[in-house]
Write a structure and sequence with these properties.
Elements lengths: L1 H27 L8 H16 L3 H7 L5 H17 L2 E12 L2 E10 L4 E7 L5 E8 L3 H33 L1 H51 L17 H4 L1
Antiparallel strand pairs: 1-2, 2-3, 3-4
């Protein structure tokens, strides 16, 4: 009886192992729009190798290409290449499907940071997008998020301070208007004073001319010189002939 149980357990174990092996083989041989996982991994590794081997002085030449996918890939690599160091080796390769699209993620270890090469294919297995990026740890992601929050808060507080300063200037507008009004009143007073002075000067000029005429008439009638007498006052007398 014990032997029979042992044989049954052994058969069940063999069946389970066989099923697991078939699942692994089926996952490895799974078809992704006509491509296997191994083929997709080979394409990703080849593309990353070619990208890494491009000399630094030639990278900018690829940015002048008319191919948007090439520009996208090279730009992403230029941003991170100095932060990751030298290549160490492959870590893992993942394939996922979303509708008719297939996305592959090749993760490779570098000296400083792991790097991912992400490629998205359409239903015809034509490349839709491709880019590289750094794999950050959870602590680094939290730190970046915290810094972003601080930056946003700083911007918000700066805007609020600027708005409060602008509002405070509104209270100065009436004061400035009052000062300008006072300056206008002072200018009007100065103009009036200047007008009075000018009138007085004109009256004085008229009196001097009148004195000169009278002095000349007296000198002519008496036969004397103007220097021999002084006109001190001039009084107007009523003309009887005009009244008549």
């Amino acid at each position: 009886m014990k032997k029979i149980r042992f044989i049954l357990c052994l058969l069940v174990f063999c069946f389970i192992m066989t099923a697991c092996g078939n699942k692994k083989e089926s996952a490895a041989d799974q078809d992704f729009n006509g491509k296997t996982k191994q083929e997709l991994q080979g394409s990703s590794e080849k593309l990353l190798n070619e990208l890494i081997e491009i000399p630094d002085e030639e990278l900018n030449n690829y940015l002048k290409s008319n191919d948007k996918l090439t520009i996208e890939l090279v730009e992403s690599w230029i941003k991170i290449k100095d932060k990751v160091g030298k290549r160490v080796g492959i870590e893992k390769f993942e394939v996922s499907e979303s509708g008719h699209n297939v996305t592959t993620i090749l993760t490779e270890n570098f000296e400083k940071k792991p790097v991912t090469l992400t490629i998205t294919y359409n239903s015809k297995m034509e490349v839709k997008s491709q880019n590289t990026d750094i794999v950050y740890t959870k602590s680094e992601i939290i730190e970046k998020a915290f810094l972003n929050i601080l930056m946003i808060l700083g911007i918000v507080f700066s805007v609020l301070i600027i708005i409060s300063i602008i509002i405070s200037f509104f209270g100065l507008i009436p004061k400035i208007q009052n000062v300008l009004k006072k300056d206008t009143d002072i200018d009007d007073i100065i103009i009036e004073q200047e007008t009075v002075v000018i009138k007085e000067e004109l009256n004085l000029v008229d009196d001097l001319e009148l004195v000169a005429v009278i002095s000349a008439a007296i000198a002519a009638s008496t036969g004397t010189s103007i220097d021999s007498f002084v006109v001190r006052t001039i009084k107007r007398r009523n003309n009887k002939w005009q009244k008549a």
